[in-house]
Design brief:
6-stranded parallel beta sheet, alpha/beta, Rossmann fold, globular, 14 helices, 353 residues
Length: 353
């Protein structure tokens, strides 16, 4: 069994350091390890948008990303096809992610192409239900394969930690957020909470410090608001993109990790925090509660006072210790090895047909 995993987006620097690139590279590593154990399949990273690379070399292709408003799938498939759809945010909240006329046409073409796929992979039961609801894919065709963490626990020296503290001028106590500044992330509410209780917030992500974007586009409204209203506040520290080693230190030095989203397909930042022993606070949204609700403090995403209260609760040593222990234990349930096994079984099922 010869599998081609699309890496066209990994080679695109915009996606390489974002969720799509992380997902693809970690899945590839786990599938490569599994192929050694099973000794009955091969996995290769291939740019599937270059039609010449196939040439009868593969038995199945896997696209690890699906875009609603741009062509990421061919309209006609030449081989059995598996597609990962991480979430359906733009379809759930079209008022915040309007496709436009061209985007609407591409959505119809993409949906038609997805309907011809032999199987769909997604990252939570919440996303599975949404894919069925908004894209019309039968639940029988959808496999849920939970992500694993992209960061691993490490022991850093005091010198290492002090270097990062000094580099980013970190306060002794700060909240941490990692990710984009899209509407569904609800970052500006977290900024409001941090300012209200006079606590620092460190924002990690390239988008937060980006200045090259269309400020009139509705999708960029939350980013513009963040930059104009919050980013210059003394409590808000935007550090841009950081590598994995520094990111691990930022997690471990933080008071807690906060995910205030209106919606998530998975919530990788929460899992990374748990794996690294950082307590977490999540909004009461379906997938976050599904995946992490037993080990996180929760709040209603529209209620900033609840978020402030959750942050303050972590000042209790007992509460803090309990949440850290719960998170570390829960994180052990989510591994890339387990995801790879589930996806491998899907490959077998597709080819058996």
């Amino acid at each position: 069994m010869r599998i081609a995993l699309d890496n066209g987006l990994i080679s695109n620097t915009q996606h390489a350091v974002r969720g799509v690139g992380n997902y693809t590279s970690n899945l590839y590593k786990a599938l490569t390890q599994l192929s050694v154990e099973k000794n009955n399949f091969e996995i290769s990273l291939v740019d599937l948008h270059n039609s010449k690379v196939l040439n009868g070399k593969y038995d199945l292709v896997h696209y690890p990303f699906f875009d609603f408003f741009f062509h990421t799938l061919p309209l006609s498939k030449k081989l059995p096809t598996v597609v990962t759809v991480h979430d359906t945010v733009p379809l759930i909240y079209p008022e915040h992610y309007p496709p436009g006329i061209k985007g609407g046409i591409r959505l119809k073409l993409q949906t038609a192409a997805l309907s011809r796929a032999d199987a769909v992979i997604t990252v939570s039961e919440t996303s599975k239900r949404d894919i069925t609801r908004f894209l019309g894919i039968s639940g029988n065709k959808i496999t849920v394969a939970y992500n694993g963490p992209t960061l691993s626990p490490q022991s850093f020296t005091k010198t290492n930690l002090d270097t990062v503290k000094n580099k980013y001028n970190l306060p002794k106590k700060y909240l941490l957020y990692v990710g984009d500044v899209n509407w569904n992330k609800n970052l500006n509410s977290l900024c409001e909470a941090a300012i209200k209780i006079n606590t620092s917030l460190v924002v990690v992500g390239k988008m937060a410090i980006n200045s090259e974007y269309d400020k009139s586009h509705i999708e960029n409204k939350p980013l513009l608001e963040f930059q104009e209203k919050y980013s210059k506040h003394e409590n808000i520290i935007s550090v841009g993109y950081v590598d994995d080693e520094e990111l691990s230190m930022l997690y471990q030095l933080s008071f807690c990790y906060c995910q205030p989203s209106w919606y998530e397909g998975f919530g990788l930042g929460v899992l990374n925090a748990m794996a690294l022993g950082t307590p977490t606070i999540i909004s009461k949204t379906q997938s976050l509660v599904e995946l992490f609700g037993d080990a996180s403090l929760t709040f209603e995403p529209a209620n900033i006072n609840q978020l402030c209260s959750a942050i303050q609760r972590l000042s209790s040593k007992n509460v803090r210790s309990m949440q850290i222990n719960k998170g570390v234990q829960l994180a052990k349930n989510y591994t890339w090895a387990r995801a790879a096994k589930n996806i491998y079984e899907t490959y077998l099922q597709v080819l058996s047909k």
